[in-house]
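fyi for ur records
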Amino acid sequence: MKRTFTLLVVIAGIISLTAVAWAQGQSAFGVVDLKRVVDEYEQRKALESQLQQMRDQMRAKLQWRANNLLLEEAEITEYENLASITNPTDQQKQRMQQIEQKSQQLNQELSQLRQKNPPSEQEVQRINQLTAVENRNKDLLAQLQEQFEQQLSTRRDEMINQMLQDIRKAVAAIAQEKKLAVVFDSTQVLYASNDITSDVIKRLNKK
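which gave:
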């Protein structure tokens, strides 16, 4: 999680956040500590929480699929749909238990069949049947994991862009109030008397 918003600081530092405040008579320069702004921006915690919740939900879904590789896709989808219901009925809970029990039985069956030495022809056919389902679900699991990673990356980028926009607007507003022509990231300036970091943080956290 820290890496996500450390990236924001790095990006912000590279692009040298500037305020578009070129009204007549403006000539002063200002600085802002972007790392401090990000660290003290209260909305950041809410964004981090949203991203973590999304990550936890995806991991739980992937883990459940990994533990139930012998179910048919229709059964997996049915279970996931039932599990997403906030207040499931007793009948829905019972159906979820049935699917879980079937998965356990299939896992136990395949484990026992693989221990047969040698297995009968009928047992070999059953092993091949269950293994085919298992391999298919492993492939689907890998695809789903890749999709989830892409979704997380997209959402993370959206959050970073949202924060950057908020910070830009706050910096621009403060710069206009103080009649500053340009505002730089403080990491790129050796000295400046016009440090507007605290003002920017206050403006952001008033929302």
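Residues 2-205 form one domain. thats all i got for now
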